[in-house]
Structure formats: C-alpha cells, structure tokens
Design goal:
This protein has 168 residues and is an alpha/beta fold. It contains 3 helices and 7 strands. It binds ligand TQI and zinc ion (2 copies). The site of one zinc ion has 4 residues, from helix 2.
C-alpha cells in the first residue's frame, strides 16, 4: 500500500504546472533529458499536473542533477550501488542521482555492466518522492523500496496511481 511523507506535504493546488530544470554543470545529453521527460509524463497522465522543462535552473520548481559523494546537502552518495539517488519531499523539489553509478539510458542493455541501473525506473521512483509519495508495500509498485540491477520498472501500478490521486 502507498504512503506519504509525515504531514502529507504536496505541491499546492494553485501550482498544477510545474517546471523542472537540469543542473547546467552536468551538461546532460538529449537522451538523458528524454528519459526524464518520459518519466514525468508517466505521472502527469494520472494527475492534473504538467511538467515543463525550463533552462533557467534557479527558477525551476524541480531541480535534477548528478553528483558524486558529498555534494552539499548532508546526504552524501556512496559510490557504486548502495544509494542510487534521492529526492526531497515537496516543496524542496531536489532530485539527485549518484554519478558513480552506471546508468542505462535506453532499452538496449549495452553497457554490459552487471551493476548498471535503469535510469528511467529510478527517475519514475524519485519523481514519486518529489510529488510527495513515500514507499509502498506493494511489490509491483514503482514506489516499492527495492529494485535490482538491470531491471526496468517504469509502469505505474494501480497502487501508485491510487496514492498520487489522493494527493492531486
Ligand atoms: N534511494 C532511496 C529511495 O529513493 C533514498 C530513500 C530512502 C528515500 N528512504 C527514503 C527517499 C524515503 C525518500 C523517502 O528510496 S535509493 C530505489 C528502489 C533508491 C531505491 O537509491 O535506495 C529506487 C532509488 F526503490 F528501487 F529501491 C531509486 Cl527505484
Ligand atoms: Zn543530494
Ligand atoms: Zn524511494
């Protein structure tokens, strides 16, 4: 079953149209940006929310970046595997990914690394946190708190949809 953060924080009803921005220091490829665009679409299909990329990093509601180790928010990354990414509850809007991971950015399992993680799967999960969802006890849910290397889990389960529709 789905859960929320303590106090059930969510984006205000006056703020249905959210913007997201990529940290310009990362110089991300269009392929990586497309993965996030697809991940946002999966949530917007089930909510009144829209997500639009902005190039103005400072004005974005949701800020996405890849960082290694200690990156200044008190939640240091830990190198390969372990923590892959984290996101903060509304209204902070930060989605950080561990740059030490090997990220799969398309369907083809081309990297050959047994520890590669599917970027879209992690993005869909972390966006759930950005919007206010905690973890789910339902194994098929994208908000279930474990995923294996190389596994792709990007489709929202009924439990994820029910949870996000309580919030929005
Ligand atoms: N990162 C944890 C996560 O996103 C960080 C975390 C732990 C967290 N507890 C939290 C974030 C509570 C918000 C609220 O769950 S992780 C998965 C999953 C991680 C884990 O790197 O362990 C995914 C990141 F669920 F598959 F295990 C992405 Cl998809
Ligand atoms: Zn961080
Ligand atoms: Zn999580």
């Amino acid at each position: 079953h789905y859960s929320f953060f303590p106090g059930m924080p969510r984006w205000s009803t006056r703020r249905r149209d959210l913007t997201y921005a990529f940290d310009p220091r990362n110089q991300l490829s269009d392929d990586v940006k497309r993965v996030f665009g697809n991940a946002f679409t999966r949530w917007s299909e089930w909510t009144p929310l829209t997500f639009t990329e902005t190039n103005d990093y400072n004005s974005g509601d949701l800020k996405i970046g890849f960082y290694g180790g200690d990156h200044g928010d008190g939640e240091a990354f830990d190198g390969v595997l372990g923590t892959l990414a984290h996101a903060f509850a509304p209204p902070r809007g930060l989605l950080h990914l561990d740059s030490d991971e090997t990220w799969i950015i398309d369907d083809v399992f081309a990297s050959g690394s047994p520890a590669a993680m599917d970027l879209e799967s992690v993005a869909v999960h972390e966006i759930g946190h950005l919007l206010g969802l905690g973890h789910s006890s339902v194994e098929e849910a994208v908000m279930f708190p474990t995923i294996s290397a190389g596994v792709r889990k990007v489709e929202l389960a009924r439990d994820d949809v029910e949870g996000i529709q309580v919030l929005y």
